[in-house]
Amino acid sequence: MQSSEAGWFRPAFALVLGLTLLRWAILLLDRTDLYVDESQYWLWGQEFAFGYYSKPPLIGWLIGAVTTLAGSDAPFWVRMPGAALHAITALILGAWAARVMGRREAILTAAVYATLPMAALGSLLISTDTVMAPFYAAALYWFTRLTETRAPRFAVLTGLAIGAAFMAKYVAFYFLIGVALIQLAPAYRIGLRNGALMLAAFALVISPNIIWNLSHKLTTFSHTVDNVGWVRGGAGLHPLGMLEFLISQAAVVGPVVLVAMVVALRRAPLSAFVLPPLVVVSLQALLGVAQANWALAAYFAGTLLAVQVLRNHRGWLTTSFAVNAVFCIGLPLLTIFTGLTFPNGKPLLDRQLGRTAMSQQIIALAHANGDLPVLAEARDVLADLFYTGQNAGLTYYAPRPKARPENHYEQRYPLPEGLTGRLLLITSNPPACAGEPLPLDARGGAYAKWGLAAYIVEAACVEQ
After folding, report:
1. DSSP for 353-417, written as a single string
2. Number of separate domains in the chain
């Protein structure tokens, strides 16, 4: 290690560790329910598989391992890995910056990444983006070592890292596009042999998931196509949607970091790892719908590029930390003080509230009527029923799919053919044979406007 690189790790580690411990402490005070995706990831973690309905398997493996080791399925343990994974990512990016720039920039890179809004949110809610992050960052680091040395071992390490990232989220494939593009710069060429080694290592890691998909009618890939929307439903032009997506990126990394990154893109070869996700998702937003986090893969290399600009502008850097501190402090506080509302009385975090309470009402009704099996039509309701009601001794069903399954629950827990007897049906659109509803209290939470009610019906009723 060169002298300019030395001495960065201890201060960066102290900063990141302190922030992570604080995030864990706040997570212990978190009063929100698991979101629908989090509950689903938890359920995946109860059964080891090489693939699941809508995502690659790594997040399920991770949550299953953590909750098993902890001996608890409490929300804290489901979400706990998030802060640690972002801390690891910050330090890996710091190590990368140390090689590319130097000690000061390494510390700055770790600090900037750890305080990004996406890292703050990813420390409160477990997601596939968060699980992908350290592996994607590691692939960038090893790729740089490969370009420095042309040593085959770094090609293998790069392939293994991006393969692991792919097993967390398929958008890790953007990295390979970046590698192809950056070959246009002579300093970053890795040669055919190293390219083949990298791809072979990548293929080795992802092969179990590819085989699983092939044996399950390409379930996960099919769901990914569904998310794109216009592939099956036809494309339109939505310039305001694209503009909304681009503006939303300021909330993902902070406005100052975003501007600094854009400024750095002009002459930086590393823009090959930033532009593909941004361009592809911007086009997706133009043609259909895009979520703000779909281009998150751009911001691992993007953080490094932003620091290259911010290091020379102390005012910008100070402003960036101040603005992002609002997210880093404000978001966790909202999860503690969940009684805060908009002027119309709607809770600020309504999507994270009321799920457990609804499941408890449904479970109580099922028990009160002879431990009835529960048939819920909505994925959101099913996700929390399986989590909150895991020890209730009840059976939960999803509607039988009409064509291909629309979610994990229709795939794995459909209403059995030929089932007889009574069911507790949870729906907002009851069949004519359902009879009188048993009201469910959904005030002040995720289901406030859903109109959910419970009905005791014969199994034959839902077959009509």
Report:
1. SSHHHHHHHHHHHHHHTTS--EEE--HHHHHHHHHHTTTS---EEBPPPSSS-SSHHHHHSBPPT
2. 2
